[in-house]
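Problem 12. The chain below contains 457 residues. Write out its predicted structure in token notation.
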Amino acid sequence: MIAALSVAELLAAYRSGELSPVDVLRDVVAQAERREPALHALCALDADGALAAARASEARWRAGTPLALDGVPVTLKENIAVPGAAYRLGTAATPDDAVAGFEAPPAARLREAGAIAWARTTMPDYGMLSSGLSSLYPEPARNPWDARMTPGGSSAGAAAAAAAGYGPLHLGTDIGGSIRLPAGWCGLVGLKPSHGRVPIQPAYAGRVAGPLTRTVADAAAMLAVLAQPDARDPTQLPPGDVMPRPLTLRGLGIGLMLDAGWGDAVQPEVAAAVTAAARAFEQAGAVVEPLAGFTTREMADGIDRFWRMRSWLDISALPPERRVKVLPYILDWVAPAAGYDASAVFRGYSQMQALREAANAACEPFDFVLSPVSPMPAYPAHQASPLHDPARPFEHIAFTLPCNMSEQPALALNAGYTAAGLPIGLQIIGRRFDDAGVLALGAAWEQMRPAQRAWPV
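Solution.
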């Protein structure tokens, strides 16, 4: 199936003339049309614009002047702004005719590299859930491995599209696990880059954009394009080499964290798969040592209070007729913020720095840290979270949240499968700025891990 080819395979086929970007785009769209009735991954498809872009790419290949990702299909999460495109942030509370008036840096970099942004992917209200449940779309996004289950979120549609073969590249965003959770639950590669590595707009604490792909090589190729300067993001990092570097496993110091310090207990199948990965690295010569959880309940609850207040301010500013359209779960989650005083919000905000310091200090003795992505595999698609309890919304993000606050790179990729056939995510955490390192260790794991099952295309 053409739509399942990797970036390198597509570029080689374009170079040889075996395929053209027009052929590939048509195959990708056909694959989406076959699977969308079950998966609900897409919220918009720009067939005409994408076909025009594919023809322009085809002309560049024939002229011998291709760009870095020329003709490679890519989807964009709905909160990645593209001028004139719907910009509703996954919620029915936004006006029906809301469109973006600017081009977000990641969208611009992909366009400049010749990638074809042919579709936009679904997300939950304001990106504040780890599922695809949304007040805007009639049905939540579904997991291609088992359509009864969620693909995760908030990059829900992106993950469903990637696992189901809607082309090789998919762009997500992450403020607490929104790339890595769906990657782990869909058997994908999902990179939360170092904060500032991929300029983003709007930018705020913890927010990054990054790749969701089927291979580490594809994630690296996408990151190389995304990690270009853009002064609109004042947190941007200086340009640097992000491609995976040669890595010697012998003597590498790896921490193994199976208890985050708070949140849901890791389920036995998840613990077994992550432990097996650690033992494989150990057999290859790495030095694996246990790492105790460093996040506290005070940190988690403080950040939760701050996020509730931020979202409550946004939602309470909506006209009443719009406010009532927000997903009820989200309204229940933000409601307590109406009673917070300034000291409670400030103490909550201060826990971001406390977690940042704790994470960097705990990880510093190691070259890398391994952990589960989530304590459990994917859960039912119509639940907002594994517990579906707005009073306890984040018990499942204890392993992913720290890296957003600490600004460290973290990579999710498949470690194995449950007895029911659902993917289990392994997280590789690197030192701050070492995006190339986590990609390199991820590539090593791809070579070492047990055989993968066929993609559910």
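Discussion. The first strand starts at residue 42 and ends at 45. Students who got a different answer should revisit the alignment rule from Section 12.3.
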